[in-house]
Amino acid sequence: MGTRITQLQMFLMLFIAQTGTVFISFQSPLIQIAGTESWFVFFCLGLLFLPHIWLFERFFQYFVWSKPICIMYAGYWFFICVSFTGKNVYTLNVWAFPETPVLLVIVLMGSVMLAVVLSKPSTAVNLGVILIPLIVIFILFVSMAVNDLIWTNLLPVGQLSLGEFRKAVQPAQLPFVGIELYLLFRLMQPEKVGFRRLFLYFAIWFAFFLYMLIFPLAYFSLKEFELFPDPIIYLLRSQEVTFVERLDLFFIYIWLAWSIVTISLYAFAVIRLLGLMGILYYKKIAVWMTVLFIIATYFVVNKNAVQFNAKVIPYIHGIFGVALPAAVIVFNKIKGRTNAGKGISS
């Protein structure tokens, strides 16, 4: 029996998967390159998100999930899970759990991820619902800094050279990571997705990331971004509230839940690919993949690996989020091959 989701579930899953990986870390590398014009670089690049996802909707049936394609995307999403979990655990080790063994944190996150993928598909599909109030609370916490913002930090604009702009495009691409999941999730959603729905999702995605970029840019001086990789956490740490001693630690727990749901969604996507390849009895494979995930993640929880992955991911995204989908769609369009009638097994 095929897994079916609603449009709301599809867009919520996509939003969680795209935001839970990079929303606290994409700012610093972008600002270090583009300075005050960082928001403008992302604004220009972010406008391409709408035609990007519209093209996916328009031609998703021509993106045929053949076995080689499934294997490549399974490997890519596994790498995303490992690299971003490594980044998350490294940050948690610095900010929240310095005395907790790194391996224990990875095992706990991997165990939750495994439990999700071994349960009914509806578990992963509906998991993002619990994050909605937490996301709202998080945005409200960030907004508390509005009175301390220096809006002149957003100026001047228009002084970047073409070379600097191209260089800034690389970290500005990080919020696009995960957009290719639409091609998979769309197979589980039988109804046509109208342009209004796509525009609404684009508007929410665009506003969220622009908000997460403008606030730290207007709050800190440019030199301060050379000192810390996660400006959102530092911004929250500087806020004084009466109901909790350190707001940044309160946010860390929200972010931890966000991260676990995110990697669970990527793992869910990999399991769906196994179904497309005709592997229906996937539980033993899921267990071994979790063991491999724990081992691989353990070796990337360090500063050098985190920095290396942050530089490499935009290039890999260019392949799996842009070049490969375009090539597969064009090839199958010419050949007249489609995904029509192809479901995703539970």
Strand content: under 5%
What is the 3D shape?
globular
Q: Report on the biggest sheet.
A: none
SS field, number of helical segments: 15
Say what the CATH topology is: Amino acid/polyamine transporter I
End-to-end separation in angstroms reads 6 Å
The pLDDT mean sits at 92
Q: How many domains in all? A: 1
Radius of gyration: 20 Å
CATH superfamily: Amino acid/polyamine transporter I
Named at the architecture level, the CATH assignment is Up-down Bundle
CATH class: Mainly Alpha
Question: Which spans of ≥5 residues are poorly predicted at pLDDT below 50?
Answer: none
Into which percent range does the helicity of residues fall? 55-70%
From N to C, what is the helix and strand string? HHHHHHHHHHHHHHH
InterPro entries: Spore_GerAB
Subcellular location: Membrane
Transmembrane segments: 12-33, 39-57, 69-90, 102-118, 125-146, 168-187, 199-220, 250-273, 285-301, 313-332
Main location: membrane
Characterise this structure:
The protein has a single domain, classed as Up-down Bundle (Amino acid/polyamine transporter I). The chain is built from 15 helices and no strands. The longest helix has 33 residues, at 303-335. By secondary structure, it is mainly α. α5 runs antiparallel to α13 (247-276) and α8 (131-143) runs antiparallel to α13 (247-276). It has helices at 7-22, 27-34, 38-46, 49-59, 67-95, 102-118, 121-127, 131-143, 162-172, 181-185, 195-219, 231-237, 247-276, 283-298, 303-335. The chain starts with 6 loop residues before the first helix and ends in an 11-residue tail after the last helix. The mean pLDDT is 92.
